[in-house]
Specification:
- The longest helix is centred in the C-terminal third of the chain and has 50 residues.
- By secondary structure, the chain is mainly α.
- The protein has one domain.
- The chain is 78% helix and 0% strand.
- It is rod-shaped and about 75 Å long.
Amino acid sequence: MTRTPSSQRCAGQTRTGSLAEAVANVLAGFGMAIVVQRLVYPLFGIVTTLTQDGAIALIFTAASIARSYGIRRLFVMLEHQRERERRECARQLEQRLATGRL
């Protein structure tokens, strides 16, 4: 078993990791989307083939992957920004303590 260096574990989720998570999440819902479409469409008088349901699900799947990835990256970016702000506050506090200007 290969061990991940602690510096990589603490770095947060990579873009590739974010994409892999988003794809896995969406693909898990892909089959469910087909089943739901097959059950719900007839209730509304919509008649489709399994091929059409697959094509519709693929379109929504692609949109969902893009949405999930974008939201994940936004939250990672916001967390990095908060971390930078925390480091800056700590630096300023250390500077004030060192100069006696509290």
